Amino acid sequence: MHWNEFVSRVRELGQYPTEAEAVRVSRTVLSALGGQVTGPERVDLAARLPVEAAEVLVGQVPATRTLTASRFVDSVATRLDDATPATARWDVSSVLCVVAEAAGEELTRRLLAELPAGFALLFGKAELTPAA
Q: In angstroms, how far apart are the furthest CA atoms of the chain?
């Protein structure tokens, strides 16, 4: 996938009026994700993303503490002008669904295993929990 395809897909999923808006949201979410994904998953994800997306992802120093899905969305909301938690959730999901498409099923499962509960829905995946 090339950067223009990535942005076009984000624009389509997020129903953004302009390509510039899709680029802004993509860069913001990828930057936030870069702080949360570490280890081999980070390297593998960067290898599957377009170069421009990978540079944003790996340009972030991994955080010392992983955020919950809710706090992750809140952190994105603070980075986007005029965002609310609801619009930030939409933005995050629009980008992370495209990230999941680029990553493929196996790598997406590994990413979700590394991230706290709640992230699966942001990636457009069902979050299944074992029965007690």
A: 46
Sign of the alpha-carbon torsion through 99, 103, 105, 107? negative
HSE of 55, CA atoms in CB hemisphere, 13 A: 4
3-state secondary structure of 8: helix
> For 11-43, what is each residue's pLDDT tens digit?
999 999 999 999 999 999 999 999 999 999 999
Using DSSP, state whether 116 is helix, strand or coil: coil
Count Cα neighbours of 40 within 13 Å in the Cβ-side half-sphere: 3
Q: Taking a C-beta distance cutoff of 8 angstroms, is the pair 10, 98 a contact?
A: yes
Residues 6+ apart with CB under 8 A from 15: none
DSSP 8-state code for residue 36: T
Q: State if pTM tops 0.85.
A: yes
